[in-house]
Amino acid sequence: MREVADSWRAWDRQHCWHPFTQHAEWSRKGEELILVRGEGPWLFDDKGRRYFDGNSSIWTNIHGHRHPRLDEALGAQLGEVAHTSFLGFGNPRASELARRLTDFFPPSSLERVFFSDDGSTAVEVAVKMAIQFRQQTDEPERRGFIAFENAYHGDTMGAASLGGVSRFIDRFRSFGFPTTRVASVEDLRSLAAEEISRTAAVVLEPLIQGVNEMRPWPPGQLAEIRSWCDEQGLHLILDEVMTGFGRTGTMFACQQESVLPDFLCLAKGLTGGYLPLAATLTTGPVFEAFLGERERTFYYGHSYTANQLGCAVALASLDVFEEERVLEGLPARVEALVQGLKAIVHPSVHEVRHRGLIAGIELRQESGERFPEGEHMGERVCLAARVHGLLTRPIRDTIVMMPPLCSTAEEITGACEALGAALGEG
Ligand SMILES: *Cc1c(COP(=O)(O)O)cnc(C)c1O
Description:
This protein has 16 helices and 17 strands.
């Protein structure tokens, strides 16, 4: 076993290229973790060490790893077929899943589901639909987007062009969709009419921005943006790739302000964190604008669109939400997270931000200034946390705590204690 594990490390170093990773540093950082197994909110490395999955395996996991119900659904689907093309064919799991997803919303609202693979593609689909919609409804000049500062909508080119994190997008800026960036509702209201007349849609992460160091929006803002979009005749694209599936306390974040978008982008938690699958939900009027001549077709799709395994496990995940009354169980878990983070008393804790089971703990110098970037304070604290059995990743110096929804209050408290202990050493 030990020798095999050494090979995994060696082959990783020789052949793998990790996302968002500076490999010149990667190999200097010492031994990387090789994760081999999971159970509930716990992960195990090749040496048998156990870690709490503090960021839900990069914001994806919902009901824990190896959930019997999800495993069983995958096994059953494997007994039928793993994948069939959705180009020209239907499949039972995709039909069922489309039905179940649209059932979360009032009849005749978000009634169409376009499947793809990831959060980025869910957004990519929405932006392309939004533009083509305008072309086919005699408003071709509406070809731009309004997005928020420091927003993150994924890494494919269309999705990335809506993003506001300069490190990710600046070098590709000239390739993307025309995007106007705003910071607030006030900014929206002060946009020139000319600017608005060139815009197809407003896009945002509702209730809380993720990659922007877990920054919640002021309450009521989402509803305000919705009514502003209605006044201006603009579509609203909500990117619920992170916030969807219970993470903020309700099934979808938009439900907290009774807002219905024209496009709803779902991915990460859709399969409970098991498989890559995404969905872009939209309305009847949008769908209808694509009917008619062949040229009106939405020419878009991926090989694994509506993958049957992905849809099967997504259906099982929705079943678990009902069977285990997951949403009802959230308030106690949120309380454990809030109290657990409150109990961390350390001069570097500048601010704790949270919405539901999504939290960011921002570290700063005692003076209130940020730590110099080169100190990699967030990274160092997360490395220290590993020793205490907690796995998570920072966004710069904001430590993410986003436990799987299945975590018990005790497990969440324990994870907060582990973070506190790691900070004490940092
Ligand atoms: C992660 C994320 C994306 C991108 O999803 P991928 O599956 O990584 O492509 C888009 N939007 C938000 C809000 C996200 O958190």
